[in-house]
Specification:
189 residues; alpha+beta; Nuclear Transport Factor 2, Chain: A
Length: 189
């Protein structure tokens, strides 16, 4: 877009609202990992970065230029926390625990499916031909339950949309199946 048609205010905001560059993302993620590793040491650290994105908050003064921050969301499996870090120029300026379970990363779903398929009860369900899984977010029992991924197993039947087989809750923090509910024992739910 030609800059001839942009107001001065828009041109100033353009730098703040520019997409996150790869180098900027790497620097932000490195700073977050370093801040988490300092107290615990890196050997026991089990993390997954869910996202790194530009965050622009409304400035306190109406004509002020907003600060360009980078938001990095991390799952700390060892401490059973979902965290968000705000960075300004590669320096952590804020760290907070997220009061919700963020959306699952594709790799988390793959890991959950792998863990579930090692469970004998799930393998028994999967022996039924055509069984497939779908993901859901289970309700955590407590704030320290860990990162929980729910998997529903079902099979497609002729003249019926599908037949539910089982629900599984995988605890990624522990690397195990936390709960298994076979549909026949749930009254078909």
């Amino acid at each position: 877009m030609s800059q001839d048609y942009m107001s001065k205010a828009t041109l100033r905001l353009k730098r703040v609202a520019a997409p996150l560059r790869k180098a900027e993302q790497r620097r932000a993620v490195k700073a977050v990992v370093r801040s988490l590793a300092e107290p615990a040491g890196e050997e026991g650290l089990r993390l997954r970065v869910l996202w790194a994105e530009v965050r622009i908050d409304k400035p306190a003064k109406p004509r002020a230029l907003p600060a360009r921050l980078v938001s990095v969301a991390v799952v700390d499996y060892g401490h059973r926390q979902n965290l968000e870090f705000l960075l300004d120029g590669g320096r952590v300026v804020q760290r907070r625990e997220l009061p919700y379970q963020p959306p699952f990363h594709r790799e988390e779903v793959e890991e959950a499916v792998d863990i579930a398929q090692r469970d004998e009860r799930v393998r028994r369900v999967l022996k039924k031909g055509g069984a497939f899984d779908s993901v859901f977010s289970p309700e955590a029992e407590t704030a320290t339950s860990g990162r929980l991924v729910g998997l529903r197993y079902a099979v497609s039947r002729k003249r019926r949309a599908f037949e539910p087989l089982a629900r599984v809750v995988v605890n990624l923090s522990e690397g195990s199946v936390g709960a298994f509910y076979e549909s026949s024992t749930e009254g078909g739910r």
